């Protein structure tokens, strides 16, 4: 496993992070989830990503159990705040009240005194940004959070936050967590250039496009049973890729992967890691062998000709529109 700096910070993270969005506490049994975490540790993965909202807070509990007994200094734990975790009007968003209550709940569930990276899971249009950033900065000063990041923020939103942080002397954002893959490249237009200039690293999710880039979804055929496409919690993300034109072109990547001695999944993960602004790629797993397979993408170098071939194959079906990123930042209190 190779390691990279998280943006311009001094924190080193594993090139591949283990994430438990749809698995822990929902898709797979706890014993299997813990086995996946242990497989990740065996492969040298030290960075683990979760969120308070995943599986209704259960994902953090399972991750906490799985990491119990592991030397805390040897791992990096990332979690997030924003989405509703209760029925009340203050059980959501990025208000000072919700941030403080959310971090205390996360620390309790994770069984730790601090998290390495605390991320604003979306932009909150209803809370003053100064309030959010002051709350995060206070948590840093209290030692409950070491670094602050965001998830699916636009370049303009990140710029606003950096300006306020610089003016008020707050800790700066060091990372952004966007969706990024061979098929979904919307961050390349505005987010990546701005973040490179400001020293902010990308911790990308869905590098395999919710399993589409493994090649298991075939054009003209229904999705395999028990796949991400049949899970009501995850099907919204994957459905945009389940078109025959996309699936046909994904199948054309097989000989490229084969010539390199890689699986389709390894090729997909290695591809996002070629972007120097990517600090880490998040992968999930419902079985230990999946994480072992994906971990082998660390350190893989794809030359310019391979990258050109991939672009040639996928070009017509790649999503590059930056407006798509803006569409993923909804109001904090959806009706």
* Main sheet properties: 8 strands, parallel, barrel
Q: How are the strands ordered across the major sheet?
A: 3-4-5-6-7-8-9-10
Taken together, the total number of domains comes to 1
CATH C-level name:
Alpha Beta
Quantity of strands, as a count: 10
Radius of gyration: 19 Å
Poorly predicted runs are: 329-335
Q: Compute the number of helices.
A: 13
Which structural class do the helices and strands define? alpha/beta
Give the overall average pLDDT: 92
Corresponding CATH architecture = Alpha-Beta Barrel
Family: Belongs to the shaker potassium channel beta subunit family.
Keywords: NADP, Oxidoreductase
Domain NADP-dependent oxidoreductase: 15-313
Pfam family, one: Aldo_ket_red
Could you explain the architecture of this structure?
One of its GO terms (cellular component) is cytosol. Keywords: NADP, Oxidoreductase. It holds the Pfam family Aldo_ket_red. Belongs to the shaker potassium channel beta subunit family. With 335 residues, the protein is α/β, with parallel strands linked by helices. It has a single domain (12-327), classed as Alpha-Beta Barrel (TIM Barrel). The chain has helices at residues 30-42, 58-67, 96-110, 129-142, 155-168, 191-198, 235-239, 244-251, 254-260, 264-273, 288-295, 304-314, 323-327; strands at residues 3-5, 12-14, 16-19, 47-49, 76-81, 115-120, 145-151, 173-177, 201-204, 278-283. It has an eight-stranded parallel barrel with strand order 3-4-5-6-7-8-9-10, surrounded by six helices. The chain has a two-stranded antiparallel sheet with strand order 1-2. α2 (58-67) packs across α3 (96-110). The radius of gyration is 19 Å and the shape is globular.
